[in-house]
Amino acid sequence: MTTTLSRTEQAWQLLEGLSDPEIPVVTLRELGILREVREHPEGLHVVITPTYSGCPAMGQIEDDVKATLANAGLQATVITQLAPAWTTDWMSEAAREKLRAYGIAPPHACAHEKTGAASVVQFAARTATPEAVPCPQCGSGNTTETSHFGSTACKALYRCLDCMEPFDYFKPY
Amino acid sequence: MNAPIDYLLQLADNAVILGQRNAEWCGHAPVLEEDMALANNSLDLIGQARLLYQHAATLIGGDASEDTLAYFRDVPDFKNYTLCELPHLPLMSATACGDRDFATTIARNFLYSALMVLVWDRLQGSADAQLAAIADKSLKETRYHLRHARDWLLRLGDGTETSHQRMQAAIDALLPYTSEFWASCPQEQAAQANGSGTDVAALRTDWNTIVDAALQEATLTRPADSAFLPTGKQGLHSEHLGFVLAEMQSLSRQHPGATW
After folding, report:
1. Which end of chain A is more exposed for a tag (fewer CB within 10 A), N or C?
2. Measured distance CA(B4)–CA(B189) in Å, rounded
3. pLDDT, tens digit, for every residue of A123-145?
4. Rounded distance, CA A94 to CA B231, Å?
5. Is B227 within a domain?
6. B259 lies in a domain?
7. A64 CB contacts (<8 Å, ≥6 apart)?
8. Cα–Cα distance measured from residue B90 to residue A100, given in angstroms and rounded to the nearest whole number
């Protein structure tokens, strides 16, 4: 059935089945971790980019990519590329909707000013209005941050003050 | 254009040593949320250190790897700021025992991340493309670290009488160690000369702005500058680093090449 597909197309199709080990509802492609599949004389080159520098899922992701392609008889080398730096802004609208349905509030767009500390100072000043993160269960905007850091590097812990449910917020990065 | 190896090691050593220190709170933090916050903070720092060590190892070549650099160098080889290696305790000798002091942790994370948001921001334009890429990622993470430390600085500084007094004591103890940020050293000069580094002394005004605004909001007083000048980035460390390395490196040295 895939005889008409090129090797790269076949690889993309296979890799589409791979999801993030920590967030199984979104695929690696939708998260923006899977960047590119290139033809190379010695086999395919699959380019991935890490999310957080220390994300422990990256090793698993690399293994998953290799195993999936190897099972289909495709020889591939996984290349980790840092630039351009991964950002949550790459996440598609469909992926955001899947996160919400799964119970994780999707990330807001990243602040765009480029200066190092400016956004932080504004961020944390008492006078600043905290960013509103709607509850993924009931949709209420009446939520509060429990902790900047949650169960994985990419998430913060929130609580809804209307339905009282705790939830994860995928932080803008 | 590649960054000087010692410059990459300085950046990596800062991250790995502070990451190791903050990880000491894992399982011991005052509340569960802080346990996770500090573990996440360490995860980011150790992740940054790994990327920097990998880059340095590639430049060194031969058998060098992130592991040889992290686990098989000794105290004088480490180029981290002395600030990063100090225990989470009011100043005392390295063999002394005491309860970990959360205010010390917060003060250090605040002073360090206030510097690093500025450094990473500049290093995004490094002539070393790999370092620029690492800086781009690290900046995003360090912003969250600064936000976390700054929030606690405010909460504790402008909190109860006890929390204020302890936060003030931590700032008084640690702020003198920041003088090392601004004193230039050979690897920083070399990095600046080939366009891979940045002039850290030029960031001092911006750093002062971040620090002074936060201290003021936290009702804390900034101690006067002193003549004290630590020399960690030149490899001349306090007595504390040896204890950090002993814990961090013991497994690798007893079981070289061990894997999970």
Report:
1. N
2. 10
3. 444 545 567 899 999 999 999 99
4. 52
5. no
6. no
7. A18, A21
8. 45
Q: Which residue has the tokens 């902790």?
A: A147
Q: Which domain holds residue A76?
A: 7-80
**Which phi and psi angles does B156 have, rounded to 5°?**
-80, -40
Domain of residue B72, CATH code: 1.20.1260.10
Assess contact for A76 and A45: CB atoms under 8 A: yes
List pLDDT tens digits, range B76-135.
Answer: 999 999 999 999 988 877 777 778 999 999 999 999 999 999 999 999 999 999 999 999
Instruction: Look at chain B and report how many structural domains it folds into.
Output: 1
Q: Is the ipTM of this complex over 0.95?
A: no
Chain B residues touching A50 at Cβ < 8 A:
47, 137
In this complex, which of A114, A121, A123 lies closest to B210 when CB atoms are compared? A121
- Gap between the Cα atoms of A58 and B39, Å rounded: 17
Lowest mean pLDDT among A21-25, A118-122, B166-170: A118-122
* Total domain count, chain A: 2
DSSP secondary structure of B132-144? HHHHHHHHHHHHH
CA nearest neighbour of B79 among B138, B16, B125, B21: B16
B94 occurs within a structural domain: no
Q: Which two tokens stand for residue A59?
A: 């090793």
Residue with tokens 């497994």: B251
For residue B36, list chain A residues with Cβ-Cβ distance below 8 A: 147, 149-151, 157
Is B121–A114 a contact, with Cβ atoms under 8 angstroms apart?
Answer: yes
